[in-house]
Structures are given as structure tokens and as C-alpha cells.
Amino acid sequence: MELVRADSLQSLDGGVFIHGGTEVVPLLRDGILEAETLVDVRDVVPRGVDGNRIGAGTTLAELEVDPQIPEALREACRLAASPQLRNMGSIGGNLLQATRCWYWRLKYPCRLHGGDRCHAREGEHREHAVFANDFCASAHPSDVAAALLALGARLRTTQRELPLQDLYRLPDEGNRDVVTLAPGELILDLELPPVQASVYLKAMDRKRWSFPQVGVAAARTDGEIRFGLAGVAPIPWLLTAPEALDAATPLPRTAWKVEVARALVRRAVAAVGAA
Amino acid sequence: MARLIRTEKEVEGRFEEVWLVVEEDPLQQWPEGPLSVVGRPAVRQDGPQRVRGEARFTADVQLPGMLHTAILRSPHAHARVKRIDLSPALALPGVRAALGPGEAQGLADEAGFAGEPVAAVAAETYGQARAALRAIDVEWEVLEVVLDPQEAVERGLLTGEPTRYERGDFERALAEAEVVVESTYRTSVVLHNSLETHQAVCQWIGDTLEVHISTQYIWGVRDALAEKLGIPGDKVRVVCEYMGGGFGAKNDPGEYTFVAAELAKRTGRPVRCALTRREENVGAGNRNATIQKLTVGARSDGTLVALGGEFVNAIGWSGWSAPTDGPMQTLYACDNVRTVRYGAKINTPPMKAFRAPGYVEGTFGLECLLDELAAKLELDPLELRRRNHADSNDGKPYSSKNLLACYELAQKHWDRRADVRARSGTTWKHGVGMASQIWFGGGGPPSYAWTRVTSDGRVTVVTAMQDIGTGTRTAMAQIAAEELGVPLERVQVVLGDTARGPYATLSAGSSTTPSIGPAVRAAAADVKRQLIEIAAQRHHLEERVLDIRDGIVVSADGNLSQPLEELVGLLEDAQILGKGGRGPNPTGMSVLTFGIQVVEVAVDVETGEVRVERVAAAHDVGRIVNPLGARSQVEGGIVQGIGHTLSEQRLLDPETGRVLTSTLDAYRMPTIADLPEIVCEFVDRPDEHLTNLGAKGLGEPPIVPTAAAIANAIRDATGADVHELPISREELLRALREAQERAREGAKEHVGAR
Questions:
Q1: Who has the most CB within 10 Å: A186, B88, B289, B676?
Q2: What is the ipTM score, two decimals?
Q3: Which residue of A259, A266, A269 to mutate against B (max B Cβ within 10 Å)?
């Protein structure tokens, strides 16, 4: 395996992008991700916060203390991973992190790996999805993505601009990807529209260093509250209204997650103020 | 004079009759309370080495030309190796040797769990060895898999005959009971997760096998290797200077040691075999799951009249059936007790002893049951325990028991109930719970120590024991310093090498201090006697008027005050040598440890989150040698107990039997942020019948009551009866729902009764 350091966006040509390495390195080590060439993009991806614009190379550690950043995102960063990981991990990379589904991580021939069944549905799934879980019951682990969904973030990549929800897609028979990035496409920065109030609440197995069992972000803009949920669907889940939780389709052992989500959504509404 | 005796020996609750030669031990116990060194907090003598990275763990051992091993493990939960071809692996770069099933102890041709070792490769680097595993060609014959322990019991798939116990007449007593509570409790598999994974480095020096290993029992490793390899014990040297924890999982040599020894023999090179964290969490042992169907019958004043339990230990493919039924048989005075315990043999990874095996699980069930009874009787749970205090162990006297004193120490923490509950709001409910603790911890013979005083006045204690990480070196140095009358910093303890020092027992079953401590004291007394004899002759004084205090030889009239190094300094190269052995345990007595923990929790009734806010522990383990080290044991036990109770759970795929949570992101141990305030108190009263020290062990007792005390605090806060470990949000929300329904039903019944 070769590691090259990209010096300009124009020179990018194939390979697997790596920034902080907190996601890519473990996946490589486990043989889930394969790469002949690793392209270190730390010199070409913008880093830092400028008003409502966040460079995709900004670390979670930098964001969690930046007063320009809305509360929901700061809190999502603060509650993610460990200080060591937050010092390394970039927000762009965080949006692309893979599920913690143990079947996927253990390389069971599941649907996300191109196979023909979801092992979690009939197997051990106490941490799995309660929405859109028919084809694949994996849960998306990104706290940050949930916060950015609620905040209505837009992304700029090397090829296009898009709302964050368009970065994600549900896997299906024809395409097992959960993101819409084209080969070689790189997230460059994010833009946050102004919000009046926002919050991120996270249920965990322990107080630190835990992926979300359920994460609920809420942001209020004028008359509207948007919710972004982590850990409830194969992709970060946009909830248009609290009642949308009624549409959840929990598995036998994940009904409790809906209950937790209801409580957190209720608290999030109270925290950001009435719409 | 050497005395030959027949005595009962206990390790982790398993008893056997053994022949022993014991030395008469003429020493009187020291008076109660803190002495000059013993009973006073001492920082770890090896602390600086540890923090500077100078302490050499097995993981640090690097030998010239050392090869590295990777182990091929069964992907199937039950399968036979029909055919295996190692030759493609042997042809790969760096590979030096490979072993198949039957070529080393622990490499099986029938794998009984997913992850059981079947073959091994040694190569120049670990990466090469691992890569070579993929080249090994195996044809498997897949066999029937049983993963459900209940099914195994029904089909008679057991590790041995069921263990049955009865005293009195359970059926009749239950029929006559005024109140009966029945509940089923389940505990899940948890993993030891020692900092240092299981590992060994083996090399042959001539016909002698030298083994560096992370182990709780260097002599056990020596003897097992000698037996399996068919060589004399003195041709095996086992070294463990420092180890990164064991918790019961490192009591014997695993396959990794036999594999390394065999590969070392075949290659003529030193060989390391070290498990990765993931292998550790699959194949290196676990605390097995249990199912406990429990019944209690009582009179309306709370007197227990009948206790019954059916216990299923979901052992796995190997392991032993730990005494889950022990607490029910021994914790309370109850004339009618009936228990049966099954060990289910299923196709899951092996059980290994884990910090008070059986009693942790059994105490969770029993102590939750007792609180359900207390709730039904509207009795104070602590009062219920007091009323059923046992004055003997089924007729056998205790060597010492100060459980009521523990309750007394705990009373002030228990009295916080009203204040704690008053903090409750609509979402966060606060409550206090308690659980009582019983466990072994008396240790036993044989164990030996030598002491050496050199002419510079320094003292070396030599004993071939191991320090599992609990601070044994420091405690032993304290005991020697106290007996000899020298400052602690003058005593050095040399341990961890079967070739350098006399036999000492294993560091398991809370037995290290009570087993080896008395031998160290006897050895120090032996050398002190000689020093006094020398001083008497040098100064023309009677021995009986001489003593050594704080490193000074003194006479009773105060006329003599000579530094010890000055006295022995006359002797140049001479060394004053002492030896000591561990005497027998008291005949006909039960040597047990006791305690109580009082836990305060906060429960978010909407999200099922539990926060353990405060744990107050009061334990009775005889004399406390090092209060600082003792406190660490209590803290560690409680932390591990909190993990077991709230967040840790080893999950298996119900279809393939593979472990799904072998990594530390999926297997969640508590972090420092999850820890409560811990208050730690001891009765600290020497057991007058137990050895010259009166000290019992403390490694295990503190983890025993934690889970039940947390569950009982949750009930106090919310009314919910949790019946499963871990108390996940799912389990807690279920229990809360059930409690609400019960309350509604109760309200209806109440209305109906009018």
C-alpha cells in the first residue's frame, strides 16, 4: 500500500482519501476497505471556521470549542468518540463513517457487503435501526451528521453543492452504498444557515466514548423545528415532526429505541423553544 | 518439627482434602489496629518502575531471534477438522513452523466453539504468521450446535452431574410460609478484559524450558507444562515479574503456552504467542451467563423459612460450574434450603473463573429476591437482613464474622435514603439500595518465604509467588518490615520466578495475602530471632530484653541503641537467612469474608438511563495490611461490578455462535466518567483463628454485592424490578412498564376491595 500526500485538488487522481485516519485505518486493518493508494488530503481540504462556513478538514475537537458553531453541532462533537479521536477526526470524514453494525464489521456476507440477507434482522440487533430497516437494519453512527441535518447544512464538494440529506441514500438491491459521492469526489466545506436555537441529546451505554444508541438534534428556524436523528436508520435520519416517530418500524429488540427517541425529541423541543 | 496433616483446601469455592506438611507456627497474632507499618497506608513499592515503563511485563519480553505466533481458530461453533494442510502456510515468507490439531495441548481437532484454536504458525513477524493462516487449507465437518443453555439442560448436555443440596424440608416450609416470592433472574456473559492479554514467550535452554508468561500461578504453569511435556518440573522455569491483570482467567497455561513451547522446540528459537484483544475477548474465558429460578418463603415478620433455587450455569464448551447456589446456602440463617445447579455444556466460548465466580451471579439473584420480599412485607431491607443473620455456617462455626459490624458501618449511608429520594423529580428518580456479601478468601497452605538480611542491614524477602497487580510486593514488604522492626523502604520483595524462591500459591480466590502473608511473617520472625541472638552475644545481654525497632537494636532498659546495619555490619559477607511456611487453617471452622454495599442511583424513567452516584462499601476481611491497597481493591471491584451491571455484555450471533462484541467499542466497560463517589470502610479486626496474621483476602469480595445493590437502588427509586444483567435501557424500560402496570392493577384491586 502506498501513501501519497495530495498537494492540490487538481492533482487528485484515484486512491482512497484519508484525513484523520480514525475511520479509514481501522477499516483497512480489518480488510473491509482495500486500497492500493492512500491519498492524504489534509493539505487540500479547507480547515477552520469562517462565520457559517466550516472547512471539511476541521477537527471535531476544534468545532466543539468554537463559539461561532451552533450548540447542536458543538454538543454533537463534544459527545462523540474520545478526546484523542476528536483531535484527529475531521468533520468531513465523520459524515462518511460506516455503521457499527457488528455483522458488517465482522464481514458477514450481509446486504451492505453485497450479500442477500440482513443478519441483524434475525440475529442480535438490540442497537439497530428503527426506520428504513427492511433491507438493511444497520444504524448510522454519526452524531455530527444528525446535528447538521437538523441545522440544514449544505455541502460543497469538488463536483457540486448539495443539501446534507442528499449526501445519503438508503441502500437497495441495485446499489449498496449509503452515500452518493462519485468516485474521486471530496467534501470541501459545509455551510450552515442561521438558526435561532439548537440542541443535541444523546443516549449512550456509558457517559463517554460511545456511539449513539439514539441521538436527537433539533434546530429552530423561524416557525420551524427540524430534527436529525443518529443511530436509528442506515443513514442519518431527518425527522420533519415529532409525530413522524409513529412511523417507526422497530425490530423485536429495538422498540426501546423508539421510546428513548420520543423522550429525547420531547426534551429537544422543550430545549429549543416552541416553534 | 514438621507436622503432617490432612486438611481441607478451598480455591474459588471448590474444596478438596489434601495432605500437608506444616511447620509449627509459634507466632502470636499482632494486636488489633494499625501497627508501625502494617495497617498503615503504603504506596506501591513498584510504582515508580510501573509509571516509568521499567516494569517488564510478558508483553515487553524481547528475546534475540524470537518468532511470533498466530493461531488459526474455528469459524464454526462446532466442527471437526476432517483434513488440514499446513504446507501452503509453511511455504510462505518468514514462516518457520506450523502446528495442526493434536500437535500441542489446546489445538483441537473438534472445535466446540467459534474461535477454538486448531492450528498455529510461527514466523519471523506477527504479520507473516497471520498472513500464513489464510493459506492453511482446512476441510471442516460441521457438527450440531447447541447455544441455548435451557435446551442443553433439557437434553442432558451437562458438564457433570447436577449439584443438589438440601437442608431441612423445603417443600413443607414453603407450604407453611406466610409470604412467598418467586422470581427468575438472568445474568449475561462478561469478559475479563485484563490490560495485558493472555500471552507467553517460551524458549528451550538445553533441556530446560524457560517460560515468560502473564499468569496468576507460576507453579501451576510449571506443573502443567512438565506433566504434558513429560519432563521433570525442575526442567521448567516460569517467570512472571509483572502482569497486567488476570481476574481469574490466567490460573493455568492456555493453548498459547503449549503452542509457544512446542514451536520453540521445533524451531530452536524463542517463540512468543500473544493473543490479540479480539482473540482475548473470544477465546480466553468469560464469566458465564446464568438463569436462576428462585423462591423465598418467609413469615410476616421477615424470618426466612424456605429458600429454593434452580441455577443454570451456561458454561460453554469448557470450564467448571461455579457455585451460583452458594450465597443462597450460606448468606442467611434459614432452616430449609434446597438448590440444584446445572452446568450446561454448549457451543460457546469457555468459562474461566472471574472474580468471585458464581457468587457474583448468585448474589445478584438472591439479594434482588430478598428486596422483593422486603417490598412485599413493607420491611426495611437492611432490617430484613439483620433479622436473618446467620450465626453459623450450617452448624459450622465461623473463624470470625463481623457482618453485623459491617451493617453498623453502613447504617449512616443507609440513613441517607430519605434525603436521596427527596431529590427525585418527574424524570430523574433517586433511590438507595443495598446488598450483603459473602465469599471465601481464607487462603491456605502450602506457601513459603525466605528472608535474607545482609550486612548493610537491608532485607530481602524471596518467595516464588506472583503479583497479579494488586500490590502484593508492597503488602509482603510491610509484613516483613513490621515483624523485623525495620523501616519499610529497607525491605525488598523478590518474586515471580519458580527458579528463584520457594513455592507459593496462586493469586486467585482472594488468597494471596492470607496464604503467603503468614509465611512471610514467619520467615521474618525466623531471621529476627537470629538477629536478636547475635545481638545478645555481641552485647552480653539476654535475648528477652532485646528488640529491633525502626531498624535499631534496643534493650529494654534503653541502654542499648544500635542501628541494625552496625550490628550486622560486623559480619561482612555473612547473610542471616530465615524461612517460613504457611500454617494450616483452623480445623472445623468456616473461613469466610463478609460485607455490605449501599448504592445511590439516579434513574431517568423516560430514557432508561441509570447513573450510579455513590457506593459505600463496608467489608470484613480480617486484618487490613495496607489500607491504600485495600481501598484500590474495593474501588476496582465496584468499577468492574458497575460494568457488569450496566454496560458490559458479550453478545453472540444466535445463528453462528460467533462473538459479536470482541472489540472495545462494542464491549463497553465503564469509563472514568461513569464512576461514582466510592466510600470504603473496613471492620479491620483480625480473625483470631486464622494464621499468625488474621488477614483474609479482599480481591473478590467488593465485586460480589455491587450488581444487586444497584438493582435494589433502582427498585427503591422507581418501583421497577429488574431481573436481568446488564440492566440495559431495554431491560429497565421493560421493568418500569411492568411496575406501572402493577401499580395500576394494584390501584384497581384496592378499589375493588373496598
A1: B289
A2: 0.97
A3: A259
